[in-house]
Amino acid sequence: MKKIIALLLAAAMMIVAAGCGGGQSASSGSGSSSGSGGKQITMGFSQIGAESEWRTANTESIKQAAKDAGINLQFSDAQQKQENQIKAIRSFIAQGVDIIAFVPIVETGWDTVLKEAKDAKIPVIVVDRDVKLSDDSLYVAKIGTDSVKEGNNVFKWIDEYMAKEKKTPRDGGSQYNVVILEGTVGSSVAIRRQEGFKDAMAKAADAGKYNILASQTGEFTRQKGQEVMESFLKSYGPKIDILFAHNDDMALGAIQAIEKAGLKPGKDITIISIDGVKGMFQAMIDGKANCTVECNPLQGPLLMETAKKILAGEKVEKLVYVDEGVFPADVAAKTLPERKY
Ligand code: AHR
Questions:
Q1: What is the three-class DSSP state of 202?
Q2: Ligand 1 residue neighbourhood (C-beta within 6 Å)
């Protein structure tokens, strides 16, 4: 009888130990989320890097949301290289994670690796930026922002502002001259923000009032934004009326270049960019910038919720856009204290 009891106790202890130690390294969240097999969910996440204030907020949101959801996040930083993202995704597949999420640095070149994930029966969620694939069934859901709409909103705001302020072109001509700092070459956000801007401009009743003088990549960084703006100023100094930067960081770099050139950013040159980071709000409060069109980086909670639903076998929307607003300088002081990034 004693032997039977000892055997039963040993078996019970083994079951408890297996339940506690199953899966991979546990997240530090309060509770842990389980997939359909009952073990903690492991998500492999490939981030593109840390090129901007926005990206830092995006990474923090994803890490915090994973903790809160009790999801074990395997985080990989690609240092702005697609090849590193592909390597990371392959390593997630080899580890047998439950789900993969990634921010595609550029639109194309994902078919092969996503097919490998599909063959391994690991669902994929695309985050923030878009992908162009031959087969859209290679990912289950996309969570992000509407870049075409952001570009549209930039032009609409400029057009209303120039009319309201009764601005006259700096070179005495009949057109407002625009320079554009573009984001990472080949990224969906850079392509679509530009498309949205040009589209809205072409459709405007007063389209002829605008002339795009120059448009070049500033790679979404402050440093490059400053350098490219310096070269724009050298080539076209007194002609430039408007700067559209595809993100706030490049606009903040450009502001430094404009000041160095002895001009007043936000006054001599109207400045609008996309993101809505605190640094841009401060620049608007200081009178050095005019508007930011929001691109919401706080995508973590929706990502984790979507991952859980997918793994629970629930149907999810293929495409979900997060909410975004437009913030001109006159609301900056009131809004800054409420900003979360
Ligand atoms: O993909 C979103 C863009 O990437 C943000 O506008 C920019 O700041 C970031 O680096």
A1: helix
A2: 51-52, 54-55, 128-129, 189, 220, 247, 249, 274-275, 295
Residue with tokens 């922002």: 145
- Ligand 1: centre distance to CA 268 (Å): 26
Q: For 47-90, how does the pLDDT look when each residue is reduced to its tens digit (9 = 90+)? A: 999 999 999 999 999 999 999 999 999 999 999 999 999 999 99
Please state, in angstroms and rounded to a whole number, the distance separating the CA atoms of residues 270 and 168.
12
Q: Average pLDDT in the 302-330 region?
A: 96
For residue 135 the two structure tokens come to 């087969």
Assign domain 147-295 to its CATH superfamily. Response regulator (3.40.50.2300)
42-145+297-323 domain in CATH 3.40.50.300?
no
Q: On the CB side of 235, how many CA atoms lie within 13 Å of its CA? A: 11
Short-list 310, 308, 318, 274, CA closest to 133: 318
Distance, CA 247 to ligand 1 centroid (Å)?
6
Give the integer Cα–Cα distance in Å for 128 and 107. Answer: 11
